[in-house]
Design a protein that fits this description.
GO terms for molecular function: aminopeptidase activity; serine-type peptidase activity. The protein is α+β, with helices and mostly antiparallel strands. It is built from 10 helices and 38 strands. It has 3 domains: 239 residues, Neuraminidase, CATH 2.120.10; 80 residues; 264 residues, Alpha/Beta hydrolase fold, catalytic domain (Rossmann fold), CATH 3.40.50. The protein is globular and about 70 Å long.
């Protein structure tokens, strides 16, 4: 019979080390030289991205050993940092110099593009098609806005500009035979989930001679993919959901909606190289469909959709496709991974399982919907779960409300190592897809437009209150935690509501004006849509910002920050720390050297997770065995 112990102090075999290593971070995959290659972030090696391969015999080895680090800094968030040829040549962007390098197995890497002289030049979104290496190039010079174009790079390292003409360009796709190039373009102040345009251009002498817009420019069209030399697909949300459209160049260029579904095949283009579907040789499509959680479907040429029995149900990306087989990355109950999808929908795991705990230690995510001031609020409830312990019948569990980043992102209802780290100790987790999240259509996503710091706060507070009303959580022991934009919502909820009794902010935004002034170009105008344009809306920025209401900080707060964060600099966290100190609010501030926006190093992730547990236990008054206490100022 399970032992009886108070919530929060349950013994768990899931250490912080084990929890942080249970979900690997994959960055691309490819069929190359008869093998399967993939990118993988290695926390034990400082978070560098290595390219690994699985040979025909199933053995796994590194193709790109230390100290090489395949990581792009285009848009700061990067993506598409490597590509491979069918014969087995690797092209990659080296983090340290942002040049494109190349290597074959067994060789030493050699630089392909020349060193930059008077500019900071970066490459990303690498794609090998029709024997040509395509990339997005970003050049930082004297102009306030970096110059971006789509380029080709030949075997001698000659870089040729194919097309420019917009602030941002992404997802280049070359037609079979190389006569046309398709791509995605958008301009400030829009983000790629607001308004973009899919364009197609005719190539003359290897460059775009003229182009035409295939989408209206008033929707968020993404990911053009060629079906034949004269026909392509792209995903568009004109209907309110990201669904597929088809265009024929030898017809009238009108886009026809195909394979409609009440789900999204598409998402926020935070990083280059991400793809949500792939055309198949038989006329069908392999696609991700998102309604809260993700599912993978095979859509036949006749439009009938058959689900693929994939164990991953969140963060699904179609990484590569050879027309018959595909490589799909994602995360599920057994951790993150890459799977090989066969011609008939067969599924084979390519990457090794993390080797975590038995399934009984992981809570099942319960989809919940709560009534909020502006409509339904979607979330996933992960109750305390431990097969060896139970709580006293009269006790309600403490809960941590997780707030995802973005804010244009979403969570898919999978208990990862971090969630299980808390739930196995008797601390529930409520993971909230507040208004502004993707995965529920454009209307839900645009609920946050002009209302950041209002709708997100109202929604997380309503979700927490709804859980309490169901009798599932202790109203006196509710904490809230999040990073980046999620950290903003944490701070705003602490100063704007009385629902939460502790907060954890990881590189969170405290002053929206400072963010608008300090952040990088990709998000330089993001706040125009989330709050309003400056200087006209300056008073709103002050009113919404947590640091504009420092007298409202009352409950203990933990601040975790990367010293090299270029998106939300440490000055934000330090200003919050000063406000807390001035009011005598208990707090702790941890600055991690060598970390940027989002922690990648193993020692950082382990320390941060253990510190969060120790902080919650200290504030809510339960023991946390095996975890060092936090010194609160």
């Amino acid at each position: 019979m399970p032992a009886e112990m108070p919530y929060g102090s349950w013994p768990s075999p899931l250490t912080a080390e084990r929890a942080t290593s249970s979900s690997a971070r994959y960055e691309g995959a490819a069929f190359a030289g008869g093998e399967i290659w993939w990118g993988e972030s290695l926390p034990d090696e400082g978070g560098r991205t290595a390219v690994r391969r699985r040979g025909a015999d199933g053995a796994i080895e590194s193709l790109l050993p230390a100290p090489w680090n395949a990581r792009s800094r285009v848009h700061e968030y990067g993506g598409g940092s490597w590509a491979a040829t069918e014969e087995g040549r690797l092209f990659f962007v080296e983090k340290s110099d942002q040049r494109v390098w190349t290597v074959r197995p067994g060789e030493e890497p050699r630089a392909l593009t020349p060193p930059a002289e008077d500019e900071d030049v970066r490459f990303g979104g690498l794609r090998w098609q029709e024997g040509i290496l395509l990339a997005v190039r970003e050049r930082h010079g004297d102009e306030p806005v970096p110059l971006r174009d789509i380029v080709s790079i030949d075997a001698h390292g000659t870089v040729t500009s194919l097309v420019a003409g917009s602030t941002f360009l992404a997802q280049p796709a070359l037609s079979p035979g190389g006569r046309h190039l398709a791509w995605v373009a958008w301009d400030h102040p829009d983000m790629p989930w607001d308004r973009t345009q899919v364009r197609v251009g005719r190539l003359e002498d290897g460059v775009v001679a003229e182009w035409t817009g295939l989408s209206s420019g008033e929707t968020a069209a993404l990911q053009p993919e060629w079906v034949s030399a004269d026909e392509l697909l792209f995903t568009d949300d004109a209907s309110g959901r990201w669904n597929l459209s088809r265009v024929r160049l030898d017809a009238d260029l009108d886009a026809d909606a195909v394979f409609p579904a009440d789900a999204d095949t598409g998402g926020p283009l935070w990083v280059l190289g991400v793809r949500w579907y792939a055309p198949l040789r038989d006329g069908g499509v392999l696609a991700v469909q998102t309604q809260g959680s993700d599912r993978l479907v095979l859509i036949g040429a006749d439009g009938t959709a058959s689900p693929v029995d994939l164990p991953a149900t969140t963060r699904l990306v179609v990484e590569a496709c050879d027309g018959v087989r595909a490589l799909v990355s994602g995360a599920g109950a057994d951790g993150s991974g890459i799977w090989l999808i066969g011609a008939s929908g067969t599924v084979e795991r390519v990457t090794p399982a993390a080797g975590g705990l038995a399934a009984e230690w992981y809570p099942a995510g319960r989809p919940v919907t709560f009534a909020g001031p502006r409509g339904d609020v979607h979330a996933f409830d992960f109750p305390p779960t431990n097969p060896e312990v139970r709580a006293p019948a009269e006790e309600l569990p403490p809960y941590i409300v997780f707030v995802h980043s973005g804010p244009t992102s979403h969570v898919g209802g999978v208990a990862d190592g971090k969630i299980a780290y808390f739930t196995s100790r008797g601390i529930g987790v409520l993971d909230v897809n507040y208004g502004g999240s993707t995965g529920y259509g454009r209307a839900y996503r645009e609920r946050l437009r002009g209302q950041w710091g209002v709708v997100d706060v109202d929604d997380v507070a309503a979700a927490a209150a709804g859980l309490v009303a169901e009798g599932r959580a202790d109203a006196r022991r509710l904490a809230i935690e999040g990073g980046s934009a999620g950290g903003w919502t944490v701070l705003a909820a602490l100063v704007g509501t009385d629902v939460f009794h502790a907060g954890i902010s990881r590189y969170g935004v405290g002053d929206a004006r400072a963010l608008a002034a300090d952040t990088h170009d990709f998000e330089a105008r993001y706040l125009d849509g989330l709050i309003g344009p400056l200087p006209e809306a300056e008073s709103v920025y002050i009113e919404r910002s947590p640091l504009g209401r420092p007298d409202r900080f009352r409950v203990p707060l933990l601040l975790l920050q990367g010293a090299e964060d270029a998106v939300v600099p440490p000055t934000q966290a330090e200003a919050i720390r000063a406000a807390l100190a001035a009011r005598g609010v208990p707090h702790a501030y941890v600055l991690y050297e060598g970390e940027g926006h989002g922690f990648r190093r193993a020692d950082t992730m382990v320390h941060a997770l253990a510190t969060e547990l120790a902080f919650v236990g200290q504030v809510f008054g339960f023991a946390t065995p095996g975890v060092d206490p936090v010194a609160l100022s």
